[in-house]
Amino acid sequence: MATLDPIVEFREDHRKVRDLLLDIAGAAEKGDLPKARESLGNLDKMVGPHFRYEEEALYPTLRTFLGKYVDQLISEHDGAIATAKTAAALLAKPSLSAEERKTAADAARALLVHVSNCDGLNILAERLSGQELDRLAQHYEGSRKAGVPLIKWADTIRGR
Ligand SMILES: [Fe+2]
After folding, report:
1. pTM of the model
2. Could you tell me which of 109, 124, 126, 157 has the fewest CB atoms within 10 Å of its CB?
3. How far apart are CA 77 and CA 24, in angstroms?
4. Domains and CATH numbers, the chain
């Protein structure tokens, strides 16, 4: 029996992601690379299970309401993963030029749009039955327990 509330946890995840992205953008702009790298590492760890839950459980369930528009959400993830990889590649460098710092900060800010769009899906999830929400909760827990970070998940399990 799942114990978490998928609607509450979904929003809570988005708050954490929002804060981490703002930290990354701010740190990259200031040239504080250790801080930017640390926040990106935390983001990678927490977004992996979140994206996995979305693609394996939430999106297929929301197809009832959204139909083919679910495919658009998956393509948005393609873009978000590519952007995260760009930021990771830049921040892995020993030092960054002013232009590179701006590119890393822009990448983090671009991902903020996905966070705010994604959070809007909760308004649809509220219309799911108790049984469906319970199934989502179980997937959410399972995905968190597996704990595969974003880039590793994208490169190994995701299969796109
Ligand atoms: Fe999300």
Report:
1. 0.94
2. 126
3. 19
4. 6-154 (1.20.120.520)
